[in-house]
Design goal:
single chain; 210 residues; Rossmann fold; five-stranded parallel sheet; four-stranded mixed sheet; 20% strand; globular; binds guanosine-5'-monophosphate
Length: 210
């Protein structure tokens, strides 16, 4: 009936383990495509251009905004982050289930444009685990960690806007739960946008000639 993929937005506090969760999902199943975001933040050790992010200057990023190349974008702790539109559209059209790992302002923009998108908020088992993970990751200075923890208090206000909450207490189980949630949503007809469009056109026939 419709082979278009599901667009899934995965958000969650910095340090909750979204990246690890998504990478495991991608390794285990081949029906997913991860959108690589553009960002103006500096590269962290171990990150790769075009794989972790497309790293760019503020000027390059603002050009992409002006050329309407981004599906959404937001500022997060002093840096721009955005989703290149073309890849997402092509992958969805080819039937892949596309994952966006983005924060809440971007999630709201996408949900407005594509109400059929599935939104998942990944939670830590406790606030303390979050802090320990951020410190243990050793990728940010203590000032940036403080900023990110502060940001969590703002993001926590928007959790109810998400379709599902996933508590990341056990990585392997969380990967399975994430896959189950996304695959189950293929059966939700309100996400089946091509089907909705077709039925809408078909029922229009009833009003023709009036
Ligand atoms: P990080 O600097 O830790 O890689 O990412 C910081 C935050 O930006 C995370 O919450 C991440 O989900 C979010 N983020 C990454 N890419 C995008 C994007 O393309 N758009 C938006 N709105 N947020 C993003």
């Amino acid at each position: 009936m419709n082979n278009r993929g599901i667009l899934t937005i995965v958000s969650g506090f910095s340090g909750v383990g979204k990246g690890t969760l998504i990478n495991k999902l991608l390794m285990k199943y081949d029906n997913y495509a991860l959108s690589v975001s553009a960002t103006t933040r500096g590269m962290r050790p171990g990150e790769q251009e075009g794989k972790s992010y497309f790293f760019m200057s503020v000027e390059e990023f603002e050009n992409k905004i002006n050329n309407n190349e981004l599906l959404e974008y937001a500022k997060y702790v002093d840096n721009y982050y955005g989703t290149p539109r073309k890849y997402v559209e092509e992958m969805l059209e080819s039937g892949k289930d596309v994952l966006l790992e983005i924060e809440i302002q971007g999630a709201r923009q996408v949900k407005k444009l594509m109400p059929e998108a599935l939104t998942i908020f990944v939670m830590p088992p406790s606030a303390e685990t979050l802090k320990q993970r951020l410190i243990g990751r050793n990728t940010e200075s203590s000032d940036v960690i403080d900023e990110r923890l502060k940001r969590a208090t703002v993001e926590a206000q928007g959790i109810e806007e998400y379709d599902c909450i996933l508590v990341n207490d056990d990585l392997d189980k969380s990967v399975e739960k994430l896959n189950d949630i996304i695959q189950a949503s293929h059966n939700q007809s309100f996400r089946n946008i091509n089907f909705i469009k077709k039925i809408r056109e078909d029922v229009n026939v009833f009003s023709e000639g009036e």
